[in-house]
Structures are given as structure tokens and as C-alpha cells.
């Protein structure tokens, strides 16, 4: 009798594990996990999601520094993710930073042709596996001009992402919009805290100092990830139930 009881418990646990969805992240360095997270001042926004979501969902961050839609597919990284997908899973898709590398034939994609086709591939193949794709525009770079105006650096790529989402009826999260609002709210000076602006000797991990207006500090990454989750909640997506309540209560704009 004890053997049967133990078997039933194990069987029940296995079924429960299968029912727990997984959130997969595919994208570039602004989203990716960084090495040495306890010491490294740089963090990807995707790296912060486990702290902001409940244990009811698994999170696999497959975003990698320097990847575009083209190189992510060419290196077999998308195939690896696709093979893992099960019904009920989710996929965050965010590219653009490296697709615009016009001098790199291994990464560059024309926004209206190959970039669009690659996004459509991610969406369609995610749906074929019974999972839910969610398209995200790129986060903005901290790029203020001399007059203090934040200037866009991504050209047509966010627009094409929006077009694919509309045409294929995919949930679209406009991270370009709310990170633009975030940078503007902080302003040309304080927005440095969202990124990596370190003087020589200020941080032992970057002893020579660093000025990086693309990638995020832990503070910046946490705020961006929280803004994303608040937007998920506003759209009343199924992922909403896995967001910690305190995240939704935060006023994140300065």
C-alpha cells in the first residue's frame, strides 16, 4: 500500500511539473543574463525576471550578447528553444540592436525583408508548438543630443516588429516607448544611473571605468523588467498571474 501511495505522489508531482509553463527569452545583450551577477554592474533586463515573478513559472533566458535574428537562427539557438517548447509556454522575442549592424554580414538584416521574415518564423513556429509568442520592440539607447532631446537609434526595426505583431495578431509590448519615457523622465544626467557610467576605480569589476549607454545597470534592468511586467498586467495576459503583486504597485517613473 505504501508503494502505491508513493507512486501516486510521484506521478502527481510529475503531472504538476508538466503543467508548469516556461517563459523563454530570445534576444540580445540588453535582455541576456550576465556572468558574475553578484559583482558585475551590468545586468540584462531578462536577468531580473526571476526576482519579479513567482515560482509558478519557469524562466529560461536564451538571449545572448551580440545576436541578431539572423545569427540567433544560424547558430542553431532558435532550433534549441523551439525543440523545448510545449503547449502553454511563452516566448519573449526581442531583437533589433544587432540586426542593424550593416557592416556585419553575419548579423545584418534588412528590416522590411529578412528581419521581418525571421520574426514571422519565430512567431509561426512558436504557435506550431502550442506556445504563445510575444513580440517586444528594443529598449532605447541613452542618446541625448546637446539640447537634451532623446534621439532614436533603431530606425525601422521597432516599426517592423509592430507591423508583424499587427499582421499576425501577436501581443506586442512597446518597450521602445516606455524605455523612452523612462529615459526622458530621468533626464540627460540622472539617466546615467540606468546604464553603466563608472569612473576609473569606482567599481572593482570595471577598474578602468566604463561609459555604456546601451546596456543596463542592475537598477536600470530591474526598472525595465518591472515596466514590462506592468504592461503585461495591463494587457491582462495569462502571464499576469505569475507577477509578484508588489511589482504591479511600484511607481517606476521618476
Radius of gyration: 19 Å
By secondary-structure content and strand pairing, the structural class works out as alpha/beta
Our estimate of the beta-strand percent is 5-15%
> Which range best describes the helical content: under 10%, 10-25%, 25-40%, 40-55%, 55-70% or over 70%?
40-55%
Strand order of the largest sheet: 3-1-4-5-6
Summed up, the helix count is 9
Uncertain segments: 3-17
Number of strands: 9
Main sheet characteristics: 5 strands, parallel
For the terminal residues, how far apart are their CA atoms? 61 Å
Overall pLDDT, averaged? 93
Note the run of SSEs as H and E: HEEHEHHEHEHEHEEEHH
Shape: globular
Description of the molecule:
By secondary structure, the chain is an alpha/beta fold. The chain is 41% helix and 13% strand. It has nine helices and nine strands. It has helices spanning 2-19, 49-52, 69-74, 77-84, 111-128, 157-168, 175-190, 218-234, 245-248, and strands at residues 22-27, 42-43, 58-61, 90-94, 132-136, 171-173, 196-198, 210-212, 216-217. Strands 3-1-4-5-6 form a five-stranded parallel β-sheet, sandwiched between helices. α5 crosses α6 (157-168). It is globular, with a radius of gyration of 19 Å. Residues 3-17 have low confidence and may be disordered.
Which labels suit this protein?
254 residues, five-stranded parallel beta sheet, 13% strand
Amino acid at each position: 500500500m505504501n508503494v502505491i501511495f508513493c507512486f501516486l505522489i510521484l506521478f502527481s508531482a510529475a503531472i504538476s511539473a508538466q503543467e508548469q509553463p516556461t517563459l523563454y527569452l530570445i534576444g540580445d545583450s540588453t535582455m541576456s543574463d550576465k556572468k558574475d551577477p553578484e559583482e558585475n554592474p551590468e545586468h540584462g533586463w531578462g536577468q531580473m525576471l526571476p526576482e519579479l515573478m513567482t515560482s509558478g513559472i519557469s524562466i529560461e533566458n536564451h538571449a545572448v550578447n551580440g545576436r541578431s535574428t539572423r545569427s540567433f537562427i544560424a547558430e542553431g539557438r532558435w532550433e534549441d528553444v523551439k525543440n523545448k517548447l510545449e503547449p502553454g509556454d511563452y516566448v519573449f522575442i526581442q531583437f533589433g540592436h544587432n540586426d542593424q549592424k550593416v557592416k556585419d554580414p553575419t548579423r545584418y538584416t534588412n528590416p522590411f525583408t529578412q528581419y521581418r521574415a525571421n520574426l514571422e518564423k519565430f512567431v509561426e513556429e512558436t504557435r506550431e508548438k502550442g506556445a504563445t509568442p510575444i513580440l517586444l520592440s528594443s529598449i532605447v539607447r541613452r542618446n541625448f543630443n546637446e539640447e537634451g532631446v532623446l534621439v532614436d537609434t533603431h530606425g525601422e526595426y521597432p516599426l517592423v516588429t509592430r507591423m508583424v505583431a499587427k499582421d499576425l495578431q501577436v501581443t506586442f509590448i512597446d518597450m521602445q516607448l516606455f524605455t523612452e519615457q523612462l529615459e526622458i523622465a530621468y533626464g540627460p544626467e540622472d539617466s546615467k544611473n540606468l546604464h553603466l557610467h563608472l569612473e576609473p576605480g569606482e567599481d572593482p569589476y570595471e577598474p578602468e571605468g566604463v561609459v555604456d549607454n546601451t546596456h543596463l545597470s542592475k537598477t536600470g534592468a530591474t526598472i525595465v523588467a518591472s515596466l514590462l511586467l506592468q504592461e503585461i498586467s495591463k494587457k491582462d495576459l495569462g502571464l499576469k498571474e505569475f507577477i509578484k503583486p508588489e511589482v504591479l504597485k511600484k511607481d517606476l517613473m521618476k
